[in-house]
Design a protein that fits this description.
single chain; about 250 residues; six-stranded antiparallel sheet; 7 helices
């Protein structure tokens, strides 16, 4: 969604929240959520909650609250579902997404999808949970049995990241990208200048931009990595960092 269209829609929600106490969007992409956070996180006339159901969720709803009396009730906005199936069956993320969209729903009613042996976990709008539970009986040819969960029953996505410690000359974007994907520094620079790299869900063309802890780097065609921590300097003055791979 174009940023202008996105923020126009958010302003409609803001006006509704100021009258009713609370109003929320459908699920936003990471880039959209980042743009909404930049636009509204410091506003004093409206409160903002970005919620995807669990810490670190990529897709979130934006809930706007009237500062004096608006209340955010997560269970009225979001529902977690578990789709149980036989452990010997292979279910892929794209299969689940295709099955849900095949019910005639749009992508923005769904949040993150986590696939584990025997169970697929997903977050959806509470208003859609009953329909999905009643209608979603198969993912491809594999039978599934949806059940509602408490948000605290969702698996920890951070535990699914594969961690790797590397050293870099600095926290410049080109240095971190090169180390993360085992590239030369010049290849990393070419990818950044060529518009193939996003930092914190926004295109970044600056090779020297500093990467902060917690930020996600996406490289088109290579994948995503998160800077989890900076451990300190080596004896040779390089930075020791821990990366998490999705």
């Amino acid at each position: 969604m174009d940023d202008t269209v996105l923020l126009t829609h958010m302003e409609d929600l803001v006006r509704r929240a100021q009258k009713t106490g609370m109003a929320h969007s459908k699920f936003l992409t990471p880039a959209e959520a980042a743009e909404v956070h930049r636009a509204y996180s410091t506003r004093r006339d409206i409160g903002l909650v970005l919620d995807g159901g669990f810490a670190g969720a990529e897709r979130c709803v934006a809930a706007f609250l009237q500062p004096d009396w608006g209340i955010y009730a997560q269970d009225e906005v979001l529902t977690a579902l578990a789709l149980k199936h036989r452990k010997q069956d292979t279910v892929r993320h794209q299969d689940v997404l295709g099955a849900v969209l095949g019910l005639g729903l749009s992508r923005d009613v769904l949040g993150d999808i986590c696939v584990e042996p025997g169970t697929v976990y997903l977050v959806c709008l509470a208003s859609m949970a009953g329909f999905i539970s009643a209608e979603l009986q198969k993912v491809g040819r594999i039978g599934v049995a949806p059940t509602a969960l408490g948000m605290d029953e969702l698996p920890d996505p951070a535990g699914a990241l594969k961690e790797k410690m590397v050293t870099v000359a600095s926290l410049r974007l080109d240095a971190v990208v090169a180390a993360a994907f085992n590239w030369s520094r010049s290849d990393a620079c070419d990818a950044i200048v060529g518009g193939k790299v996003q930092l914190a869900h926004r295109e970044c063309l600056s090779t020297s931009h500093a990467v902060a802890c917690g930020e996600i780097i996406s490289v088109r065609g290579k994948g995503r990595v998160k800077l989890l921590s900076v451990e300190g300097e080596t004896r040779k003055g390089r930075q020791r960092i821990t990366l998490g791979y999705y």
